[in-house]
Design brief:
The complex is a heterodimer of chains A (about 325) and B (about 325).
Chain A: E1 5-18, E2 21-34, E3 38-42, H1 49-57, E4 65-72, E5 75-76, H2 82-88, E6 93-96, H3 100-103, H4 110-120, H5 127-140, H6 146-149, H7 159-171, E7 177-181, H8 189-206, E8 209-214, H9 217-223, E9 226-231, E10 234-240, H10 241-246, H11 251-258, H12 302-306, E11 312-313, E12 319-320
Parallel strand pairs in A: 3-8, 3-9, 6-7, 7-8
Antiparallel strand pairs in A: 1-2, 1-4, 4-5, 9-10, 10-12, 11-12
Chain B: H1 3-9, H2 43-53, H3 55-72, H4 74-77, H5 109-145, H6 147-162, H7 165-176, H8 180-189, H9 193-206, H10 210-217, H11 222-230, H12 235-259, H13 270-276, H14 287-314
The chains are: A alpha/beta (about 325), B mainly alpha (about 325).
């Protein structure tokens, strides 16, 4: 893997004003996305996964307050005009949405929608060349009989085909970054595997960087190169898949891993699956110190309540925000 | 008939605070099986077969075509030339020679109605087209861009809605002359508000849909999003609005003519045929009112049924017919 960062996100803050106060959806997130890699972004609902991705696209609602820096190939994206953002969207960075049925226009044929992505960026010399490209794209994502299928409407597609059509649309202009926002959440396991396989094949062909947003650890383990775990709008941990899964440095990561049902561990009727106690915090009134401390099984030290842990380096590429990074791994294999 | 779009078509939203229901029911799950169908048919074939299923709409379409043909080819079709008088017979009721009877000057009413229909239909169709265009444009811009564009355009719409239409029309026609062009343009200028409100409501609801965000995510400009993605999705209500517009324009033109501000003699429209027969209420010559009135009624109804059938057939997610 080449270590050229395509996307550099530095201390990104996104907040939304609400009647109760400022909702801090993303609270200081920093990461690089390297060329050709797949970065899995994991976290529960409301942890800021999607919001940080949409901030990259510049597609947040106007009332969102975005601070920090997002650099695409060294070029600052925040504060760019809407017009110049438009030339980047879909051409350099594209998104695959979770619900393909909702994200495809119901009254336009699938082929025409993919064609549009090409037209918007003046890709392809002639109409017939573009049409050829549409067929080619549908073929790449594995849609049977692309010529016929291009003329069909989204509702005539099955769930898996729709998601593939979304992918074809996102890939139309050979983007350098593909943001996949829970691309497989709405699909059953078989289709999920097929769609993930499409991602894999695309990456082999084009060296596209993928940001895979999901809450499915299984998907991440099988697809991603690196993983970023988010909690309450902050980064809990980032590292390679092996680091995250075998040596977690944050008790939240360890808790997530521990709560997965496993085949290699006996679960008799008396024991139950591990769970993280409590509930995710309100993004308006975050706990003091470490946002995870009220739920943390590892530490109830004074320090966790008063000091916000710094997101710091813990080895080659492994970073976590915990005062006691060596405690987390001990959670694995225990029962609460 | 489709409840859903009907609701959307009525300007019940008040100040437009409530977005109309999305134009078409989301029943897409039903269509998934379409892939396994015996032989795939093109969308036009599907559209055709769905439309043909709507008996009343097909009947209305045939009727309208016949009517339009008969009116615009009146010099070939009408049994008597325009304005040909037969003072000797005077006003006689419907008979074998004169199906719709004759007026007091012995003019054949059927022929008169056909010639007058040219004017009424021309004005009705032009006004519906222009006002739909204008209303859709205003509603779409106002709904999508929001903020001051919305405020400005919607207050303008309110202003046009509170104008006493007949008075303004009468003044405009007095000022610019009562040619058919002036009448059509002034009617169009006063008929777009309902459409604008309906479209705005639809757009308000549609712009929050994910496919709009997806269109923006491929780099589509606001204009492209509005015209390519949003407007085709509210075609149903727009179409219904347009058909109501045809009816409304024919009726208003009739009212104007009745009051003497509309189409001026010797040109005739259904409205001023009615107007010139107004003295016959309750007399044996009342047929002079019934026939032009009936033509207006038939046309207005047929146009409405046609709009209904078109809307059902145009929905690509409807069943496969």
């Amino acid at each position: 893997m080449t270590k050229t960062p395509v996307l550099q996100v530095l201390d990104l803050h996104v907040s939304f004003p609400s009647p109760d106060g400022l909702v801090r959806a993303v609270d200081g997130v920093t990461y690089d996305l390297y060329e050709g890699e797949t970065l899995g972004i994991v976290g529960e609902s409301g942890s800021g996964k999607s919001v940080s991705a949409m901030a990259v696209m510049g597609l947040l609602p106007k009332y969102a307050v975005v601070e920090g820096s997002i650099k695409f190939r060294g070029e600052e994206l925040l504060g760019k005009s809407e017009k110049s953002m438009r030339s980047i969207r879909g051409a350099e960075i594209s998104v695959i949405f979770q619900d393909a049925l909702a994200a495809l226009n119901p009254v336009i044929t699938v082929g025409a929608q993919i064609l549009e992505a090409l037209k918007v960026h003046q890709n392809g010399a002639s109409e017939s060349e573009r049409k050829g490209r549409v067929i080619e794209l549908l073929e790449v994502v594995g849609i049977p009989d692309p010529g016929e299928s291009a003329g069909q409407y989204p509702h005539e597609y099955s769930g898996g085909m729709r998601q593939r059509a979304m992918i074809a649309m996102a890939l139309a202009n050979d983007p350098s970054v593909l943001i996949a926002d829970e691309p497989t959440t709405a699909l059953d396991v078989t289709i999920q595997a097929q769609v993930l396989d499409v991602f894999r094949r695309i990456q082999e062909r084009t060296n596209t960087s993928v940001m895979l947003i999901t809450h499915d650890l299984g998907v991440v383990a099988g697809t991603a190169d690196r993983v970023m775990v988010m909690y309450a709008g902050r980064q809990a941990e980032i590292g390679t898949v092996d680091e995250i899964f075998y040596e977690p440095k944050h008790p939240y990561t360890a808790g997530l891993l521990e709560s997965l049902p496993r085949l290699d561990r006996r679960t008799d009727s008396s024991s139950r699956l591990y769970r993280i106690h409590g509930q995710p915090p309100s993004l308006v009134f975050l706990p003091t110190g470490c946002a995870f401390h009220p739920r943390c099984p590892v530490s109830d030290q004074e320090r966790c309540i008063t000091d916000k842990p710094i997101f710091r380096d813990l080895g080659s590429s492994h970073m976590a925000s915990c005062h006691y990074p060596d405690e987390a791994v001990k959670l694995l294999g225990t029962k609460s | 008939m489709n409840r859903d779009s009907r609701e959307g078509a009525q300007p019940l939203e008040g100040l437009g605070l409530v977005g109309g229901s999305p134009s078409m029911p989301i029943g897409a799950e039903l269509g998934i099986g379409a892939l396994d169908g015996p032989k795939p048919r093109s969308q036009w074939q599907l559209f055709g077969s769905r439309f043909l299923k709507h008996r009343l709409a097909v009947f209305s379409l045939v009727l309208l075509i016949l009517l339009i043909f008969a009116c615009f080819a009146a010099n070939l079709v009408a049994p008597f030339p325009a304005n040909e008088q037969d003072l000797l017979i005077g006003a006689v009721g419907p008979n074998a020679n004169h199906w719709f009877g004759t007026d007091e000057l012995g003019r054949d009413m059927l022929s008169e109605i056909l010639y007058a229909g040219r004017t009424s239909l021309r004005i009705g169709l032009t006004v519906a087209f222009l006002s739909t265009l204008l209303g859709t444009l205003v509603g779409a811009i106002s709904g999508y861009f929001g903020k001051w564009a919305d405020q400005g355009l919607m207050r303008l719409t309110d202003l046009f809605l509170v104008i006493p239409q007949l008075v303004v029309l009468a003044i405009a026609i007095q000022g610019f002359g009562s040619t058919q062009v002036v009448i059509a343009l002034s009617l169009a200028a006063l008929f777009w508000m309902g459409e604008a409100r309906v479209v705005r409501g639809q757009v308000l609801a549609l712009r929050e849909r994910e496919f709009v965000e997806a269109a923006r995510s491929i780099g589509a400009s606001p204009m492209r999003v509005v015209f390519r993605h949003i407007i085709p999705n509210c075609l149903g209500p727009i179409l219904v609005g347009a058909t109501l517009g045809v009816a409304g324009a024919i009726l208003t033109e009739s009212a104007l003519s009745y009051l003497g501000f509309g189409v001026q003699l010797p040109a005739t429209s259904w409205g001023n045929l009615l107007s010139s027969a107004r003295g016959y209420v309750g007399t044996p010559q009342a047929y002079l009112i019934y026939f032009p009135g009936m033509m207006i009624l038939i046309t207005v109804l047929a146009v409405n049924f046609l709009g209904d059938g078109l809307r059902d057939a145009l929905d690509p997610r409807g069943n496969n017919g």
